[in-house]
Specification:
globular, single chain, 4-stranded antiparallel β-sheet, mainly beta, 45% strand
Length: 279
């Protein structure tokens, strides 16, 4: 009798598990949360890109859908509201790249159109994606400024320019894109109020401009630069921090320069470096 009951209970449990396993995914997050279940938002999906901003995040899935979540006080999530989101929200389709700035989001679609939302660098606040321009292959979003690379390799920038971070030879904020240089294949922008910018040209040369109090441009000085200055050659990747810079050479070597008070460069010291040092 006990053996029969045990078999019945086991069969019943298995049936209930199979039912729940098959129906749970079709219910909304509200239902699963009310039942005490936690479902990974991208379960079974392939994420091809993730990005983190000042206080919000984004991901692009293999199907081209773009999702965002986090702080949304100025519409940087792009879901038409200013409600903070602690779970990913589906914002747009056909996305291939996303960059998060301070309170805004920029995305590139497969047709190379550039879209933006949040507190855009021209001062406009929008809560849903709006088209900015065409023929864009790369975008980097900094603290209240944007740098883009167009299909022809030209580098354009606009937004805050208080320390020359746009590289146009001035410290005048720009509310529309202005051309900076040609033959650019990569650019990295800073998230600090006093920002600097680094770019790699097609020949592998590395260029920098903007704020340089700690030598983060890497030109051997602490003088702010309002125009691009060449720093080194044979560079394949560069990443800009608030006050320091890291780069990878074509031979796989890692280099760092700029502020080092907390040992952020990794050279075994806490001494600021005004020129690239091998790490």
């Amino acid at each position: 009798m006990r053996k029969t009951m045990r078999k019945s209970l086991t069969a019943f449990t298995l049936v209930i598990f199979m039912i729940l396993s098959s129906v749970t995914p079709i219910f909304s997050d509200g239902f699963t949360e009310s039942m005490g279940w936690t479902m990974p938002p991208f379960e079974g999906q392939q994420v091809i890109m993730g990005a983190g901003g000042e206080a919000h995040s984004a991901a692009i899935l293999a199907d081209g859908s773009l999702w965002t979540w986090g702080v949304n006080n100025v519409g940087q999530i792009g879901d038409g509201t200013t409600i903070n989101r602690n779970r990913p929200q589906r914002i747009m389709e056909d996305a291939i790249f996303v960059a998060l700035g301070s309170g805004f989001t920029m995305a590139i679609k497969s047709d190379n159109s550039l879209w933006g939302w949040g507190w855009l660098v021209d001062g406009e606040i929008v809560h849903s994606p709006i088209k900015i321009m065409d023929d864009v292959i790369y975008v980097s979003a900094g603290f209240r400024y944007v740098m883009i690379i167009k299909a022809d390799g030209s580098l354009l920038g606009w937004g805050r320019n208080n320390v020359g971070q746009l590289g146009d030879g001035t410290t005048i904020d720009r509310h529309s894109p202005i051309k900076i240089m040609d033959d650019v294949k990569y650019v990295s922008t800073g998230l600090g109020y006093f920002a600097h910018t680094m770019a790699i040209k097609g020949d592998g040369s590395l260029w920098g401009w903007g704020y340089n109090r700690h030598g983060q441009i890497g030109d051997g000085t602490t003088i702010d630069r309002h125009n691009p200055v060449m720093i080194s050659n044979n560079v394949v990747s560069v990443s800009v921090g608030v006050s320091h810079t890291m780069a990878i050479g074509s031979n796989g070597s890692l280099w760092g320069w700029g502020q080092n008070g907390g040992g952020s460069l990794g050279d075994g010291t806490t001494i600021d470096r005004h020129s690239p040092i091998l790490i």
